[in-house]
Amino acid sequence: MKRTVFEAELSQGETRHLMDVFVIIDNEDLPCIDVHRRMLLYAEVSVPNSLTFQNLLLQVEDRILADFDLEIAQKQLVYHNRYHVNAVRSRAGRLFEAIAPQLDLSQEALRRMRGILDLCAMAHDAVQIFAAESQPDAGRRRDPGVSEAATFERLASHIRDLQETLPAAGDGRFTENEVQAIREAIEATVVHYDSSEKMIYQPALHQVSPPRFVIAHLLALADFGSLGLEGIESFNEEGRLLFLEENPDATGKADDDLRRRLLERARFQVRFARSRLEHLERELVGLPVAALPAVREAFSHLTEETVHTIEATTPTNYEATLPQLLTFFRLGVA
């Protein structure tokens, strides 16, 4: 893989509010060829100290994304790929901007928090471990927490390796607290299945106590946030890509089996949309109260009208035909 980094040149002691870093990835096997990184936000930062940590963030991210690229190629990850993590990063950034004015933190602390949040968003799906098939026609699945634990261990290993070359003290390193925040953020994206509701949810946002670290809270909201933050088109596209990733053999299936799988996914989509609306307020508990109006505004698409539209336009009837389902999921017509 050829990787070229372009950085704004800053002279010794110069300060900037924002430095844009562009990474061009020249690899025809990757769906994402251009990543725009906005690294130094919200602060006037002294270059010598701050660039050390920003460069460390960049190096850690490069290493974990190299691992991720192999996962994408080897495991046919049509959903959990660069497009997804860039989308999560964008959503998490919007939520961070909504709450940042209400956090009692210095500009330097906010800058570090945003950088770590960006790293977690880009890294949170870097390792994908599928469970052994228990039923021949059930599609691929992941056991809760397994991929996330492996992802954190891989990320922590890269952090340890890179920090071995740095001074033992100083603000150019991740603190122990920041590493714990990364762990909690990755773990906050773990998904469980509620058999009573026939729906998935993130336990980290449904505990008695909310996540300890703000970045964990924001990452979890962003990971499940396509409908509320982006709208129906994004939500349906995620459903389509998840179906393809979990059913890589779908195109070779008999019509009846393919229709059954697509109908199950369509019904799940409708339940998931309703669940997102019903659980939003519970999942916001723990964020700064003064920031909640701005956060709710960010989730502007998550309304009763939006859910009604999804219910009305998604083919969930038992009589839905295979051509109808294929058309809805934009998979062609049988």
Short summary of the structure?
The protein is mainly α. The protein is built from twelve helices and seven strands. It folds into two domains: 1-187, no CATH class; 225-334, no CATH class.
Q: What is the total domain count?
A: 2
Enumerate how many helices there are, as a single number: 12
Question: Helix share of residues?
Answer: 40-55%
SSE order, one letter for each helix or strand: EEEEEHHHHHEEHHHHHHH
Beta-strand content bin: 5-15%
**Mean pLDDT over the residues:** 85
Helix-strand makeup class: mainly alpha
**Terminal-residue CA separation:** 38 Å
Low-confidence runs of at least 5 consecutive residues = 1-50
The biggest sheet amounts to: 3 strands, antiparallel
What is the global morphology? Answer: globular
Instruction: Order the strands across the largest sheet as they lie in space.
Output: 1-3-4
> Could you give the count of β-strands?
7
CA radius of gyration is: 21 Å
What does this structure look like?
- By secondary structure, the chain is mostly helical.
- The protein has helices spanning 47-75, 82-99, 107-123, 146-163, 176-188, 214-223, 226-230, 232-246, 255-284, 292-298, 304-313, 322-328, and strands at 2-7, 15-16, 20-26, 34-38, 45-46, 192-194, 199-201.
- It has two domains: 1-187, no CATH class; 225-334, no CATH class.
- Helix 1 (47-75) packs across helix 4, helix 5 (176-188) runs parallel beside helix 6 (214-223) and helix 9 packs antiparallel against helix 11.
